C-alpha cells in the first residue's frame, strides 16, 4: 500500500456505519477504525480529518442512543437476558456514582473500555432523562472520536507508509485497551479487599 490510498465520502459513510454497529454490538474495534481513518485521511486528504471526526462521533452517538433506548425500555429483563445485570450491588453502586457525578461518569464511560454499556444500563434503569443523555453523550461521543483520531495521528507521525501508520494505530488502541483493563481489574481487586 502506498500514499495514494483512496479516501473519500464512501469511506466516511462506511466508517460511521462500522462505528454504529460496533457501538450497538460491541464486537468491532471501533476505536481502531477511527484511528485508521485518521491515518488514511492524513496521508491522502488532511481536510478529511474533520470528516473522520464527524463520522466517528456520529456513528458512536447514534449507536449509544440505540443502546440507551434498549436499556431504558428493555430494562432489567433485557439486562438479565443479555447478562449485563449479574450483580444488583454493582448496579446500585453504578447508579449512585451516576447520581453523584452524572456528567463525569457519562463522559468517561465512553473512554473506558467496557465501561459504556454498564453506565448506559444504569442510566436507562434509573430513568435518566433522554434530553440530558442526548446532550451529554454528544459531547462524550465527540471526545471519544477525537481521542482515537489523535491515536491515529500519532501512528501517522511515526511512519511514512499508510499501512504502517494504520498498524501502529491499531496496536496503540489495543495497548490502551489492555492497560485500561488491567488498571480497572487492579482497582476492583483493591476495592474488594477492603
Summarize the structure.
The protein is mainly α and 194 residues long. The chain contains eight helices and no strands.
Q: How would you describe this protein?
A:
This protein has 194 residues and is mainly alpha-helical. It has eight helices and no strands. Helix 2 crosses helix 7 (130-158), helix 2 (30-44) packs antiparallel against helix 8 (162-193) and helix 4 (88-100) packs across helix 5. The protein starts with 8 loop residues before the first helix and ends with a helix. Residues 1-5 have low confidence and may be disordered.
Mean pLDDT: 78
Number of strands: 0
Number of helices: 8
| Oligomeric grouping of the chains | single chain
* Series of secondary-structure elements, N-terminal to C-terminal: HHHHHHHH
* Overall radius of gyration: 18 Å
Structural class: mainly alpha
Helix proportion range: over 70%
Overall 3D form: globular
Portion in strands: under 5%
Could you tell me how far the N terminus lies from the C terminus, measured between alpha carbons in angstroms?
A: 53 Å
Low-confidence stretches: 1-5
Largest sheet: none
What labels describe this entry?
0% strand, globular, mainly alpha
Q: SSE layout and pairings?
A:
Blueprint: H1 9-24, H2 30-44, H3 48-82, H4 88-100, H5 102-109, H6 116-125, H7 130-158, H8 162-193
Helix pairs in contact: 1-2, 1-3, 2-3, 2-7, 2-8, 3-6, 3-7, 4-5, 4-6, 5-6, 5-7, 7-8
Amino acid at each position: 500500500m502506498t500514499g495514494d490510498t483512496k479516501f473519500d465520502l464512501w469511506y466516511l459513510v462506511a466508517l460511521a456505519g462500522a462505528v454504529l454497529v460496533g457501538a450497538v454490538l460491541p464486537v468491532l474495534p471501533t476505536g481502531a477504525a477511527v484511528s485508521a481513518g485518521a491515518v488514511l485521511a492524513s496521508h491522502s486528504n488532511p481536510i478529511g480529518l474533520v470528516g473522520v471526526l464527524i463520522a466517528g462521533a456520529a456513528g458512536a452517538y447514534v449507536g449509544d442512543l440505540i443502546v440507551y433506548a434498549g436499556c431504558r425500555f428493555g430494562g432489567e429483563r433485557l439486562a438479565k437476558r443479555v447478562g449485563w445485570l449479574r450483580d444488583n450491588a454493582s448496579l446500585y453502586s453504578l447508579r449512585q456514582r451516576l447520581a453523584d457525578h452524572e456528567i463525569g461518569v457519562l463522559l468517561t464511560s465512553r473512554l473506558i473500555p467496557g465501561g459504556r454499556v454498564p453506565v448506559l444500563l444504569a442510566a436507562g434503569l434509573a430513568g435518566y432523562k433522554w434530553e440530558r443523555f442526548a446532550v451529554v453523550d454528544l459531547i462524550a461521543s465527540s471526545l471519544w472520536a477525537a481521542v482515537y483520531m489523535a491515536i491515529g495521528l500519532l501512528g501517522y507521525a511515526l511512519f511514512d507508509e499508510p499501512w504502517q501508520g494504520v498498524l501502529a494505530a491499531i496496536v496503540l488502541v489495543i495497548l490502551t485497551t489492555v492497560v485500561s483493563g488491567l488498571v480497572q481489574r487492579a482497582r476492583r481487586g483493591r476495592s474488594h479487599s477492603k
